[in-house]
Design brief:
Blueprint: H1 3-27, H2 40-48, H3 55-58, H4 64-79, H5 85-93, H6 98-105, H7 121-142, E1 144-148, E2 162-167, E3 188-189, E4 194-195, E5 219-223, E6 249-256, E7 261-265, E8 268-271, E9 274-275, E10 286-292, E11 297-299, E12 305-309, H8 311-317, E13 322-328, E14 333-340, H9 342-349, E15 354-359, E16 385-389, E17 396-398, H10 404-414, E18 425-428, E19 431-434, E20 437-438, E21 441-443, E22 448-452, H11 462-465, E23 468-469, E24 473-483, H12 491-494, E25 502-503, H13 514-539
Antiparallel strand pairs: 1-2, 2-24, 3-4, 5-6, 5-24, 6-22, 7-8, 7-16, 8-9, 10-14, 10-15, 11-12, 13-14, 17-21, 18-19, 19-20, 22-23, 24-25
Length: 540
């Protein structure tokens, strides 16, 4: 949707509003023209219904306005004596068009000093819930968004079952592009498992200024730039094309920033010729084959092996990602495939039950067809990749038939149809054409990033789908408020107490602030108890 289209829609809405309310404005002692002037008419309407002027701002905030419109319709009707349940239902069900009936066919009288207090306990409860939803939606959309770690790609920094708060304001909050959506959910309504939004209308991409740029090695939440899951918690449901801001949310580490030359050698990232130095909290993991005399995984009550580390393996080796690939009952050996850190590798290697530990790899120059850019001219795989230069806004690059595969999706999708531009790349002999015109150079419209998991051999990341555009960035994970280990036994043990109220970033071992939270909460309850007792004594 272009800005011109938006202006036309706003004009249509203003005309609808004027035609349906001008008589009511006049009955309230206002001028007729005040009902026609955009924005100003909203401020005047707030005065008419005895609500604060800042409410008018909420009518122009995407998603929030969907909640506020029914409130304003009902408040307008009540300001002209239409207070009963039928009037309220008609106002909401008709999408405010019932106001036309009141405006033209009734002798409704303006009630200047009406009471704003709900007449019933149910009305007061609904009013409180409604504005709690508005406040929570504003926070969720523009300040902090909850996020749950779905995969093990960032073990050991972030674990499956970590519940995070993601800051929207670090990199700048992105305004919703999908204008009709269920509040405070992403792409799916919980429990109902239904789509939470309408594909149209779509608003242009806008972002508030952030107070920091994405730095190399930052952990970032972003919208998966290619195919998107119908429901990230149920991958078996398949894929579906979604609006940009409703694509599945992913979290990875940004190992490459705009302008970097990036190369991967045997799973290690090199930036501008030097190996990338990760924060001390980050622990790279690689895939190993472990041949042992005993099992490293749990068994269920029937004796069946599970793809979960045993309690001993989990606590002594710090292994969380492991499964059995083969059982040789004749020789009484079991082969496991596990993701190991360097520390875990040393511990496993020295274990007396272990016969062999072998790091699994592939040869340099071996082409993996699932590796970006999915072109046999680039003999890359997830272990050996690049070099490539990460695109930077305002910078130009030469376009040739040899390298167009790297930039085709950027030109056609990220800087094409996702922003309303019809870009089509075609090849003609040795020439690359954009919309039929020969293309020899391209200037990027936005910054791009290279996102990867620390669990290098068990991570769906940029090595498969390439660059992540800045307009896909959601925010920065800052805080773990809860951590749940579904594989642990017993309710108490399922909570990772040491991870509660810990920060995502920083140096050294994560420190839990949960005890300080409990202490402050206890102080508050004691204070509140004595405050209420004092007030009760004064009232008597």
């Amino acid at each position: 949707m272009t800005f011109t289209t938006i202006l036309i829609l706003i004009l249509i809405v203003q005309i609808i509003h004027f035609l349906g309310t001008w008589k009511l404005y006049k009955k309230a002692g206002r001028k007729i023209w005040e009902a026609a002037l955009p924005i100003y008419n909203a401020i005047i309407l707030m005065k008419i219904i005895n609500r604060p002027s800042w409410w008018s701002l909420l009518l122009f905030i995407p998603i929030i306005n969907l909640i506020m419109f029914p409130v304003i319709w009902v408040e307008t009707l009540r300001s002209f004596g239409k207070n009963n349940t039928t009037d309220t239902l008609l106002g909401v069900v008709t999408l405010g068009m019932y106001i036309y009936y009141v405006n033209y066919t009734t002798g409704a009288t303006y009630i200047k000093d009406r009471s704003l207090k709900p007449k019933t306990a149910a009305g007061e409860w609904i009013s409180s819930i409604l504005f709690a939803v508005v406040a929570a939606t504003i926070i969720h959309t523009y300040v902090l968004q909850p996020f749950t770690i779905p995969t093990s790609s960032l073990e050991k920094t972030l674990l499956v079952g970590d519940f995070l708060f993601v800051s929207k304001f670090h990199y700048g909050a992105r305004t919703p592009m999908t204008s009709v959506s269920f509040p405070m959910v992403h792409d799916t309504i919980p429990l109902l498992r239904k789509k939470s939004y309408l594909n149209k209308p779509q608003l242009p991409y806008l972002r508030f200024p952030g107070f920091q740029e994405i730095k190399r090695n930052d952990i970032v939440v972003f919208n998966w730039p290619t195919d998107t899951l119908i429901d990230i918690n149920r991958p078996s449901k398949g894929f579906k094309v979604k609006p940009l801001d409703k694509k599945s949310n992913y979290v990875k580490r940004c190992v490459g920033i705009p302008g970097d030359e990036l190369e991967i050698k045997n799973g290690y990232v090199y930036i501008n010729g030097k190996q990338n130095s990760l924060p001390d909290r980050a622990k790279l993991q690689f895939r190993y084959k472990i041949v042992s005399k005993s099992s490293f995984v749990k068994r269920d009550n029937s004796g069946r092996y599970l793809n979960q580390p045993s309690a001993f393996v989990s606590s002594h080796f710090d292994i969380s990602d492991i499964y059995i690939s083969d059982i040789d009952r004749n020789n009484k050996v079991i082969t496991h495939i596990a993701q190991l850190t360097d520390e875990a590798y040393q511990k496993v290697k020295n274990n007396p039950n272990v016969i062999k530990v072998e790091k699994l790899t592939v040869e340099e120059g071996t082409w993996n067809q699932s590796t970006f850019p999915q072109d046999p001219k680039f003999k890359w795989n997830t272990k050996f990749f690049g070099p490539i230069t990460i695109p930077q806004a305002g910078k130009s690059t030469e376009i040739t038939i040899e390298n167009i595969a790297l930039y085709k999706r950027i030109i056609e999708v990220y800087e094409g149809n996702e922003i309303g531009i019809e870009n089509k790349i075609s090849l003609s002999g040795t020439q690359v054409k954009l919309n039929g015109e020969v293309l020899t150079e391209y200037t990027f419209l936005q910054d791009y990033y290279w996102m990867m998991g620390d669990n290098r051999d068990n991570s769906q990341d940029a090595r498969m789908w390439g660059f992540v555009p800045f307009n896909h960035v959601v925010g920065k994970p800052v805080f773990i408020w809860m951590s749940w280990d579904s594989n642990a036994e017993g309710l108490v043990n399922k909570i990772r107490w040491e991870r509660l109220f810990t920060t995502v970033g920083g140096e050294g071992k994560p420190v839990s602030y949960f005890k300080y939270f409990v202490i402050l909460l206890g102080i508050w309850f004691v204070f509140d108890f004595f405050r209420k007792r004092k007030e009760k004594a004064q009232n008597h």
